């Protein structure tokens, strides 16, 4: 957008327009829904079958849950009662069933008496199972289209065109990933997952219930997608007295207890032996 001296400003600077985009993006959340292949759905089924204090309302909704619409436009209107009820547990659970969006970085302006000619924002998305990055691109494009028209700006939405003055340019990160492949979790055959589950029960007790799950954080498993479909993000160390979820992960004083560490070593020792002896089907 046009630069110049701040004593003679335009009605809207590039930072102001960027702020308008940010506000519009944050006001429109993605739908919360549970796709049939979302591992968290399997975790809920395990919960209702084995957990004595599993919420009754979730059990009732599980019995009547129907697959969400395949069409993204229809999903925006569809109310997934099971997903919405489960999401009440908090954002850590909600974002197992909803594409997240976080405006993480903004850069614009060079000094206090100069109008900012260019402003750049970065929005981080973690795509829900059953959705695609293209759905996020479409949503942001529609928002940017309205704001570009309002301010008489050219919109370049996810095209290879070079950035031009007086425009809004949308680009996807070079590291954009599709939703990770879902690893098989069959236990009625000898499979990597069944051995993982059996190893866990062998270490922590036969009454331990091992259920499939999902995590919001990204990992480097994309480097293994072409190698195997059996990819599990699993931390086998556990300390019943001190462990509390993810604890101090990625913050001050990140640590695990000695018991947790020793149990992790025991688990891997058992798992390697079990995998070596197994005849996988």
Task: Describe the protein in words.
The protein is mainly alpha-helical and 281 residues long. It folds into 3 domains: 14-30 and 99-170, Alpha-Beta Plaits; 39-94, no CATH class; 192-277, DNA polymerase, domain 1. The protein is 36% helix and 9% strand. It contains 9 helices and 4 strands, in the order H-H-H-H-H-H-E-E-H-E-E-H-H. The chain has helices at residues 14-27, 39-50, 56-64, 72-77, 81-86, 91-94, 133-150, 192-204, 258-277, and strands at 100-108, 119-126, 154-157, 167-170. A two-stranded antiparallel ribbon has the order 1-2. The chain has a two-stranded parallel ribbon with strand order 3-4. The longest helix has 20 residues, at 258-277.
Please count the beta strands (DSSP E, at least 2 residues each). Answer: 4
How many angstroms does the end-to-end distance come to?
Answer: 61 Å
Number of helices in the DSSP assignment: 9
CATH first level of the largest domain: which class? Alpha Beta
Strand order of the largest sheet: 1-2
- Low confidence ranges: none
Integer average pLDDT: 92
What is the 3D shape? elongated
Into which percent range does the helicity of residues fall?
25-40%
Order of helices and strands: HHHHHHEEHEEHH
CATH architecture of the largest domain: 2-Layer Sandwich
* Beta content: 5-15%
How many domains, in number, for the residues? Answer: 3
**Helix and strand composition category:** mainly alpha
């Amino acid at each position: 957008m046009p630069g110049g001296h701040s004593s003679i400003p335009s009605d809207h600077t590039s930072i102001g327009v960027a702020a308008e985009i940010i506000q519009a993006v944050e006001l429109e959340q993605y739908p919360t829904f549970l796709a049939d292949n979302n591992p968290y759905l399997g975790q809920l089924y395990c919960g209702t079958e084995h957990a004595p204090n599993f919420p009754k309302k979730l059990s009732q909704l599980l019995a009547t849950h129907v697959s969400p619409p395949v069409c993204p436009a229809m999903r925006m209107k569809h109310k997934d009662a099971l997903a919405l009820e489960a999401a009440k547990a908090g954002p850590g659970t909600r974002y197992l069933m909803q594409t997240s969006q976080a405006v993480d970085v903004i850069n614009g302006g060079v000094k206090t008496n100069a109008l900012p000619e260019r402003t750049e924002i970065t929005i981080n998305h973690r795509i829900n199972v059953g959705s695609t990055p293209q759905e996020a691109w479409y949503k942001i494009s529609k928002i940017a289209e309205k704001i570009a028209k309002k301010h008489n700006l050219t919109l370049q939405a996810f095209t290879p065109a070079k950035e031009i003055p007086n425009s809004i340019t949308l680009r996807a990160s070079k590291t954009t990933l599709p939703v990770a492949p879902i690893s098989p979790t069959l236990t009625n055959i000898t499979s990597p997952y069944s051995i993982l589950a059996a190893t866990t029960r062998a270490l922590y007790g036969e009454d331990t219930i091992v259920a499939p799950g999902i995590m919001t954080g990204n990992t480097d498993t994309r480097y293994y997608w072409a190698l195997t479909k059996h990819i599990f993000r699993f931390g086998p160390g556990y300390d019943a007295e001190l462990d509390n979820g993810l604890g101090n992960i990625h913050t001050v004083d990140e640590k695990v207890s000695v018991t947790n560490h020793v149990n992790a070593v025991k688990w891997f020792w058992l798992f390697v032996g079990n995998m070596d002896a197994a005849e996988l089907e």
